[in-house]
Amino acid sequence: MTKLKDYIASQLIGKKVHFRCQCLFPLDFIGVVKDYTLSNDRIIWKVERENGKIIDIELNHPNMMIEIL
């Protein structure tokens, strides 16, 4: 069996995703999810932006929205 958070995180691998969050640190960008890690029960995606830079996105943003493109 697969752990639920592993399953959820793996569903975005290789997909082009639009991330958006209107929180203390606003986010609005598009990138391809390359990998993920689980750290202290949090999902952290490795996302390659269109400019080639890779950034980490955590699932702990309360207002995070995503769109799979």
Helices and strands, with pairings:
Elements: H1 4-10, E1 16-21, E2 27-39, E3 42-49, E4 54-58, E5 65-68
Essential attributes:
69 residues, mainly beta, 5-stranded antiparallel sheet, 5 strands
Largest sheet: 5 strands, antiparallel
Radius of gyration: 12 Å
Total beta-strand segments: 5
Helicity, as a percent range: 10-25%
Provide the spatial order of strands within the biggest beta sheet: 4-3-2-1-5
Question: Low-confidence parts, pLDDT < 50 over ≥5 residues?
Answer: none
| Number of DSSP helical runs | 1
The end-to-end distance, rounded to whole angstroms, is 29 Å
Overall pLDDT confidence: 91
User: Any idea what the shape is?
Assistant: globular
Compressed to H and E, one letter per element, the order equals HEEEEE
Structural class: mainly beta
Beta percentage is over 45%
Description of the molecule:
There is one protein chain. This protein has one helix at 4-10, and strands at 16-21, 27-39, 42-49, 54-58, 65-68. It is mainly β and 69 residues long. It has a 5-stranded antiparallel sheet with strand order 4-3-2-1-5. The chain is globular and about 35 Å long. The mean pLDDT is 91.
Short description:
This protein is mainly beta and 69 residues long. It has one helix at 4-10, and strands spanning 16-21, 27-39, 42-49, 54-58, 65-68.
